[in-house]
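QA checklist item 7 of 12: single-chain prediction sanity check.
[x] sequence parsed
[x] length recorded as 728
[x] structure emitted
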Amino acid sequence: MKKKDITFLRVTHLRGPNIWTYRPVIEALLDIGEFEQYPSNTLPGFTERLTAWLPGLLEHRCGVGERGGFRQRLDEGTWIGHVLEHVVLELQMRAGMQTGFGKTRQTAEGSGLYKMAFRTRNEQVGRAALEAGRELVLAAVEDRPYDLAATIERLTDMVDSLCLGPSTACIVDAATERKIPSIRLNEGNLVQLGYGARQRRIWTAETDRTSAIAESISSDKDLTKSLLASCGVPVPDGRIVENAADAWEAAEDIGLPVVVKPVDGNHGRGVSLDLSTRKDVEEAFALAEQHGSEVIVERFIRGHEHRLLVVGNKVVAVARGEEAWVTGDGSASIAELIDAQLNTDPRRGLTEEFPLNKIIVSEDVAIQLDLSRQGFDANSLPAQGQRVLIQRNGNVAFDCTDELHPELAEVVALAARVVGLDIAGVDLVAEDISRPLAEQDAAVVEVNAGPGLLMHLKPANGAARPVGQAIVNHLFGETDAGRIPLVGVTGRQGTTQISKLVAWLVRLSGRHVGLACAEGMFLDRRQVDRRNGVNFDSGQRLLMNRTVDAAVFEHSAESILREGLPYDRCTVGIVTDVSGHESLSEHYIDSADRLYGVLRTQVDVVDPAGYAVLNAEDEQVAEMAPLCDGKVIFYATTADAPALARHRAAGGSAVFARDGRVFLARGADEERLDELAMLPAAGAGSLEVSSVLAAVGAAWALGMSPDLIGAGIETFEAEQTAARARAH
């Protein structure tokens, strides 16, 4: 008797396009045991308990295609593996990680074994959600308590610590919208956009165009001011001070009121504004000293603080700061008023998802000093109607982009150029940014590298701005998707030889070629790794290499099943045959039809502007042609292959052999590769005829001339002999 439980027999992270979808997923092999006899509608109270815990499940459309579709499936009766799929997706959504795709399929009728796949943006979060989902489903079945709040909190903490931050994520999402691929390069926010030699890199809101010199200048506020002033950008008078007494002396020289802040601080830490007494200046000096290497005293500019985001010499977003005040009621303390009047605002919180920070007086020395200057502390009881200033800065989250005067935009863009930053957060103090400089006492007070983007993505008021899109457009031209030619080869027959031959041909066209195949990893003619390169990591290594401007990958059915493909799209996808399912029993691939579903992945990822190169002499391979988003080139050892003949009759392209020669055909038109001598007879030489034809088809698809293709085939075996000699 099978136990009434859900058992995970295997959990696999498919990191690239796979048999399920184009995106990374976690695939779980489930044994649902006795639940095979108990669909959801036979479990008393199960649906009600589950949807009470996770009301978001009511939004799941499932196969019905409309809101409430999944609830309908629960009421009609669906199996527990399918339920778990939806619960795991909902848990990830509740934790703040967007997902959507999920599928559950039985391996064999009546077996109780299911393959379940679900989209996840992070493997660790996905695995944790899977385990939590199992416990939640079993608790709903058994009508026992489950601490959902603790689970959501734990998963949310994992999302916050393991996933991309909001600034980086918005850039990556914008790149994805433009079909620019991305690779995360570390556990933080370093991300590669594009492949190989066409790649660009971002680190939060810094790019590989961000100058280290410019970043160093921006971190030195005194040097920044000096450079800005020399170029006509208005800045407040000020100087670096050595101690508290020097700070007061500088304040008197500059003229009160003043600002005291660290020279190399950030995020407003250690900044004190509108200081008019010696006591205030000296206390502010002590605070600023804790947050930077040196302290600067500047003239205080009256007006609102504004953060302007400059991308590629253009202002793309503006946020205004607003002071935070409370009003006394005669009985509540300032700390209590803050909690009641400010911290109850749903826009305030402790994490980055909130546009405004929660105010905790005991943890903020700047607020304590501001209260002290007004004669208060956190326990003071303001009179009825008395207004108390709580926070001068730290609330720059109110969008006002559309108000910006063109002259101010020009000055701010100039400030970013003077410092040398391609992306900058420029702090401007002005009474009204809709008015020109001549009408007000405005000044640029800081220019920051790596600015935060959240204030523009989730402003407390006003419209969100497409700042991620602006950064991607800055890095990539209008028609540039950051891609290089990629060729994928899969099947069992001759795939290593085809991969090596294609790489050789592409190199002859003048490109630096990377190759990952069963014999290792190669950069042009140099073997850099002798280990089997038919795996995800080897493929990613090629895509990360800045010298590679074309790449060829060999894939097996097993590598697709275990890891997925290392790229999202390819220029050319070659499929040689559908055979060998007998070795894939552990993946429940027990027929040629199921193997077809694995190998078609190579065709599914062909770019709309690319080609599938298919063996017309394998019936199942030929059947993949309609799946290709691009065009199709059939190849065969004879022009009489039925699929090839039908394809040509419809005007399609083909490569075939006739009388020992290779021919290229478009419809009825044919061209012989005259640069290529006779193909080797069966069993003669190391080159297989079908391998030559597949490689010729790929090179043709990449735009190589017939003469160059022919010459490349002729020289390949000599090159292989030389390579073996070099290896020994």
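[x] summary fact logged: The CA atoms of residues 175 and 473 lie 9 Å apart.
[ ] second reviewer sign-off
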